[in-house]
Amino acid sequence: MEKTLPTLQITVPELGKEKIVSLPGTDATGAILPRLEGTAADDRSGVQKVDWCVDPLGANPPFKLAVPQSPNDWSRWNVQNILIPGPAGPHTIHVRCFDGSGNVNEQVINVAVILQYPPKDPTAQEYFSSLIDFIVRRLKNVPQNRFLQIEDLTAELFQPLQSLLGQMKR
């Protein structure tokens, strides 16, 4: 029986760095990691699936299926808007890749959920204004030849900014 592990690579977020995420709301609400992306391959028996779970505990933790690039094509996969439950503190996201022979490769991402600064006026507009103020102080690597993009902010801060902008338009 073939024993070679499938290859699994997480490309977003970057491995090796702890990700810090927060979301408006109470500590019990948790946080959202907007994107998880990667690649998977197996030259021998093919990739059967890629799945993921936040803080897996017990004998049968609730792993969920990632979304393949196209049906049965796991060469690229992704997951959108992963809820990381409270309380604040360290958490892990486990990603597994299974091949046709039953071999499993697993990667782990470390995530820290922090308490959110509570705005004076808890509306989306006030939160967004407070967040922009924070961004101006934190972001220092934005190229000077272009405007800051929503994708830059989401990638750096791991905040669901597109959703907040949508709420402000209502």
User: Main sheet: which strands, in order across?
Assistant: 2-9-8-4-5
Shape descriptor reads elongated
Helix-residue proportion: 10-25%
The H-and-E topology, N to C, reads as EEEEEEEEEHHH
Largest sheet: 5 strands, mixed
Number of beta-strand segments: 9
Poorly predicted runs of 5 or more residues: none
Structural class: alpha+beta
Q: Quote the average pLDDT.
A: 79
- Into which percentage range does the β-strand content fall? 35-45%
Element layout with pairings:
Blueprint: E1 7-12, E2 19-21, E3 31-41, E4 47-54, E5 64-65, E6 67-70, E7 73-84, E8 89-99, E9 104-113, H1 124-138, H2 150-157, H3 161-169
Parallel strand pairs: 2-9
Antiparallel strand pairs: 1-3, 3-7, 4-5, 4-8, 6-7, 8-9
Quick synopsis:
By secondary structure, the chain is α+β, with helices and mostly antiparallel strands.
